[in-house]
Design brief:
Number of helices: 31
Largest sheet: 9 strands, mixed
Low-confidence stretches: 196-203, 256-306, 370-393, 395-404, 527-532, 766-796, 798-803, 817-826
Helix content: 40-55%
Strand content: 5-15%
Structural class: alpha/beta
Number of strands: 15
């Protein structure tokens, strides 16, 4: 078959592969055996009752007795076959399907008996119809026979339902075509349109995700249970990695003092120590390399002695005060990144606040005005029109009806801790390669913030799946010395960044606010001034921000888009800073990732899968999974039983052969692994972009979960430490299979961890927290003197709402850990 080497574990019956392997059958066979034992007992009981109560001269009754005996025989023989299948399915390890070759013959026999059961049950139905209760002298005999017939139908239906669940409709198709058919069905179920011309041109449909899955999940006919077993084995291996030496170095200790890179960093930092903090931007965000753009993008040969082109992390130790400043600012802009998701994720992070917002007078009035406003329907001839950018209902002339701002806007302002006048522009446009974002004023830090939303919709998933790199324009990003693969960037992120760049160019909001540019002349296609779709700034609202910092932030996909935006915007706005919260791992080439270290800090929370996700990491995970299955020395049933019932007590040596003992591996498993390796090499040579090395951007701050055993930490601060890591270290380590590798990506958890770590290091400094922490009401509202005492108080009240969110997140993360044992593999 086109999907991989022959002889792989997938079960092959009736000329096609199925979604199970032969060693998946123990549990189904045990269940069927129990059912058949019970049902045979019931049939014997009914046979005894019917035989004693049968009329002596009733020929039809004797035929019914023959039918009962035949039914019992079929079920008894099925039970015996199920015992044989159970015994056969427990033989061998996962990649030893030849030890289970007799299962196919037994399954054909079992299928024949199932057909015989169907025939006997149909015959019993006809006999009961003709005989009825006329041949039986004892009470309830006829009822018992009817129960047997109905029970037979139920058991047969369960058998066929199980067959339907493991039936692979597209088994005869190549892997990519198979996934494409499945996602086409999914799109129909989700009522998704076929896609616009622009989306089809950019491959922005579900077929893009199908292609991604088809490329990765081929080369081995592994069934879902094989993948689950492989991941369980990898989790045992990765537990050892997590218990070993951690990546990078503590931010309070710095890099190795004797390295050439560290000495060069110390000399550069000493020369500009006095300029480390300005305009509310903390020192760790400023470049520790040369301030010139070219030196920040130096080639690999100019790096330190580790020869790591992604090593752009500070080598000097940081004081607790400086570290508290940085973590506080990271938590602050992580909250702004969370705000870009709108009301739904705000409610996820803060359920009481989100529900209160929806149930408020504004929220209820919005539901009345936006869902079924009778007066608006009358104006529009029975149709409510929505502006795609503002998310607000509009009438046919572009004016805004009575009603408040959308819940997303309200949640955005509450989460970010800003007022309506601070929100300059919002785009809710969402499609493949089109990310929602907003522009607002952070008065407390004298910054204009562009926050880009991360993955939240199917369209965003399509953007994520465009993982193969494309080349950026070296002239457009101001790095003409880079060539070829040095300009590689995630294709989906490039599409999303280009969309936002064109939108920024069309509205010129940043130019008006930061450069003092006059508002553009209204165009014929513009909405009337003051209409819902009009987001043009007044001149008085835009002025007064000269010298402010441009801060780009985002979470997940949004962090990647913000980083690529900064590469284009820094030519116009040189004072640009980026906070990337859990950016995608496969984002930029090594040279671009290091160059971004001049203005970018990215956080990686625990074992976050997205921050480590790239084409090479997926291929490495696939190879490691096949290797683990080949080295497994127990059956799949035994492995999954051990992991399910006592995962903490299972050691790697209990279920895996050592990697240095190839001679003890089963010959069949070794042969299948070698066949897969040949396929892997061929696939990568034919599609080299699958294995293109991409890295997360800038300086990487790893929020490492400390191995605390079974002790319950009293706070998140005790459970984590902050470490600098290099992008190459992270990507070489690859995807880590743990019980929290997905939940570590949630933005509310990152906000809570950053906040508590900031408090932890602030407690170690002498200056306290009120000047640094984003959820301090004094810090949030400290720059409102221009508006007078009354406006200053109002701004503090608004910002306190955002402060309460962060405090609630910290409390919620603490409460989740009450009563939970912290394992070493966490």
């Amino acid at each position: 078959r086109a999907s991989g080497p022959a002889g792989m574990p997938a079960l092959s019956l009736f000329g096609r592969t199925w979604l199970v392997a032969a060693d998946d059958l123990p549990i189904p066979m045990m269940c069927l055996m129990v059912v058949h034992v019970v049902w045979c007992t019931v049939i014997l009981f009914v046979y005894e009752r019917a035989h004693q109560g049968l009329e002596a001269r009733c020929a039809a009754g004797k035929t019914a007795m023959t039918w009962l005996f035949g039914t019992f025989s079929c079920f008894f023989l099925s039970m015996c076959l199920e015992g044989l299948i159970l015994r056969q399915s427990l033989k061998g390890t996962i990649l030893q399907p030849n030890k289970r070759t007799h299962i196919n013959t037994l399954l054909y026999m079992h299928f024949t008996l199932t057909i015989a059961d169907v025939c006997f049950t149909a015959l019993g139905t006809l006999l009961d119809y003709h005989v009825g209760n006329s041949c039986y002298v004892r009470n309830h005999v006829h009822t018992a026979i009817v129960v047997v017939i109905v029970g037979n139908y139920f058991i047969i239906a369960c058998n066929f339902l199980g067959v339907a669940l493991i039936f692979s409709v597209f088994a005869h198709l190549p892997s990519e075509e198979r996934w494409n058919r499945m996602f086409s069905i999914l799109g129909c179920c989700l009522c998704m349109p076929a896609g616009s011309d622009r989306e089809r041109d950019n491959q922005g449909t579900l077929s893009q995700i199908a292609t991604c899955f088809g490329e990765v999940f081929q080369g081995a006919d592994l069934v879902p249970s094989d993948i689950a077993a492989g991941l369980a084995l990898l989790a045992l291996q990765h537990r050892g990695k997590l218990e070993g030496e951690p990546l990078g170095w503590s931010v309070t200790e710095g890099a190795a003092r004797g390295s050439r890179g560290a000495r060069r960093e110390r000399g550069a930092r000493e020369a500009r120590r006095d300029e480390a903090t300005r305009d509310g931007v903390t020192a760790p965000l400023l470049s520790d390399a040369s301030p010139s753009r070219d030196s920040a993008s130096a080639s690999v040969s100019d790096d330190d002695d580790s020869n790591d082109p992604t090593a752009s992390t500070i080598g000097e130790p940081m004081s607790p005060e400086a570290l508290s400043d940085m973590l506080a600012e990271a938590a602050h802009y992580a909250r702004w990144a969370l705000a870009a998701y709108g009301w739904m994720l705000y409610t996820w992070a803060n359920p009481s606040g989100g529900l209160a917002l929806a149930c408020s007078a504004r929220g209820l009035r919005e539901c009345c005005c936006c869902c079924c406003p009778a007066e608006l329907r009358k104006k529009n001839g029975g149709e409510v029109l929505m502006d795609p950018e503002s998310g607000l209902p509009v009438t046919d002339d572009g004016s805004e009806p009575d009603g408040p701002e959308s819940l997303d806007r309200e949640a955005l302002k509450t989460c970010a801790g800003i007022r309506g006048e601070d929100l300059f522009y919002v785009s809710f446009t969402n499609g493949s390669g089109e990310q929602p974002y907003f522009i607002a004023r952070d008065a407390a830090r004298k910054a204009i913030v562009v926050s880009v939303r991360g993955t939240m919709s199917v369209q965003d998933c399509i953007t994520d799946s465009m993982y193969k790199p494309v080349m950026l324009n070296a002239e457009a990003i101001g790095m003409p010395h880079l060539r070829g693969a040095q300009l590689h960037c995630h294709a989906g992120v490039v599409n999303a960044a280009n969309f936002i760049l064109s939108d920024l160019e069309r509205h010129r909001v940043l130019h008006q606010v930061l450069l003092g540019e006059q508002p553009p002349a209204p165009q014929a296609t513009d909405a009337p001034r003051g209409a819902a779709g009009d987001q043009r700034l007044e001149y008085d609202q835009a002025r007064g921000h000269e010298g402010w910092t441009l801060v780009l932030c985002g979470h997940s996909l949004g962090a990647g888009v913000a980083t690529v935006l900064s590469l284009h915007l820094r030519n116009t706005f040189p004072d640009v800073r980026v906070w990337g919260i859990e950016p995608p791992g496969g984002l930029l080439s090594a040279e671009l990732a290091k160059a971004c270290g001049e203005w970018t800090v990215s956080s990686i929370h625990g074992n976050d899968i997205i921050a480590r996700l790239s084409g090479p990491c997926l291929l490495k995970l696939r190879r490691d999974l096949v290797d683990a299955l080949a080295r497994c020395k127990v059956s799949k049933f035994s492995l999954l039983a051990r992991v399910t019932l006592g995962a903490r007590d299972v050691e790697e040596s209990d279920v895996l052969f050592p990697p240095d003992q190839e001679e003890v591996l089963p010959h069949e498993a070794t042969r299948l692994r070698e066949a897969f390796e040949r396929f892997h090499v061929r696939q990568v040579s034919e599609r080299p972009l699958m294995a293109a090395e991409l890295y997360p951007p800038g300086r990487l701050l790893h929020l490492r979960r400390l191995p605390v055993g079974r002790r319950k930490p009293s706070s998140l601060a005790e459970a984590y430490e902050a470490r600098w890591v290099t992008a190459r270290e992270v990507m070489r380590q690859g995807l880590l299979v743990t019980n929290n590798f997905f939940t570590d990506h949630f933005p509310d958890k990152v906000v809570a961890v950053l906040s508590e770590l900031a408090m932890k290091y602030s407690a170690a400094s002498s200056n306290g927290m009120t000047r640094h922490h984003s959820f301090s009401s004094e810090a949030l509202g400290g720059d409102a003197s221009k508006n007078g005492a009354g406006d200053q108080k109002a701004r503090r009240d608004e910002n306190r709402r955002g402060a309460n969110l962060m405090e609630n997140l910290v409390k919620e993360q603490r409460s989740e850990r009450k009563g939970t044992a912290w394992d070493d593999d966490d």
